[in-house]
Amino acid sequence: MSGAAGSVDRLSAAIDDFLLHLRVERGLSPATLSAYRADLLDFAASRGVSAAWDSTAEVPIRYLSMLGSPGRGRRHVLRPTTLRRRAASLRGFYRFCFAEELIESDLAARFDLPRQPRLLPEVLSVDEVDALLSAKSDETPVGIRDRALLELLYASGLRISEAVGLDLEDVSLDAGLVRVVGKGDRERQVPVGEVAVSWLRRYAADVRPGWLAGWHGDTRRGGPVFLSVRGERLDRRRGWEILVAAARSAGLRDGISPHTLRHSFATHLLEGGADLRIVQELLGHASISTTQLYTHLTGERIKDVYARAHPRA
Asked: Between 190 and which of 111, 118, 156, 172 could a Cys-Cys bridge form, CB atoms 3.0 to 4.6 Å apart?
């Protein structure tokens, strides 16, 4: 067996061993295993890989460079997040090979993961938020519920799962507060503005009682705030559909989600002079670094306004 052919066989066997390790010893899901398999098979099939994959770190480094660069035989340059996943797959594979003595040196230590990009969240302007909320202005019971939900999302910055998970006991309309248990079971109280309170009152008085008759779940905490016409708790998917339909009716761009309102809530607060620590508390972020992303976003928006407004920008 020639050296080249032997290297190909060793690479194929090493990939099989690695995938078996991930499935049996680490218990990874079928979807994750499928992603690892696809990444490694693409690596194995690339030109120049099979001959020297086990002897030099230049092989995986060159492969990753090719994936991230245009004009090198690739029709599409991979997105940074996809490239990072490919690099993580290769590094895990090479570390396994070194630990199992399939290769003589720790080649994985010689190549780094591409830096994780910090993608700025998309936000709406105040006018766009007004248009989105006003798109749900019909006086039907469903229309009143949908408007109350959307007003609450923007007024409080809640995640859609947090909003539809509210029980009546979590909401104090007189105090203008909602109690939320977010990620990591962190509890917080979030103020709700007068406009959202007004819509929630209408929904609570005129719509919810009739639908609550169909609720057959736990009533110790008052039952769900947001219900379907059949008396079931509104789920995340339906909440997402309500917002997407409102955005479409308002003539806004595609891709708007409930999280877009959360991002807009945070950005508009900071642009209005809110303290970063207060916004962190309102959003329920465990780390201030997560909230700091919005300060960069507001800086970009300020520069955009400056560029459009200043005669010598």
From this structure: 156
Annotated active-site residue in 63, 94, 154, 294? 294
Contact assessment for residue 163 and residue 171, using Cβ atoms and an 8 Å cutoff? no
Half-sphere exposure of 303 (CA within 13 A, CB side): 6
Instruction: Please name the fold of domain 3-110.
Output: DNA polymerase; domain 1 (1.10.150)
pLDDT at 8 over 90: no
The pLDDT value recorded for residue 288 is 78
Quick check: is 294 catalytic?
Answer: yes
Catalytic residue among 145, 262, 263, 268: 262
> Which positions ≥6 away from 91 have C-beta within 8 Å?
108, 111, 113
CA atoms within 13 A on the CB side of 131: 13
Which contacts (CB < 8 Å, 24+ apart) does range 3-9 have?
4/50, 4/51, 7/50, 7/51, 7/52, 7/53, 7/54, 8/44, 8/50
| CATH 1.10.443.10, applies to 126-309 | yes
Provide the whole-model pTM: 0.60
Q: Which of 74, 79, 110, 183 does the annotation list as catalytic? A: 183
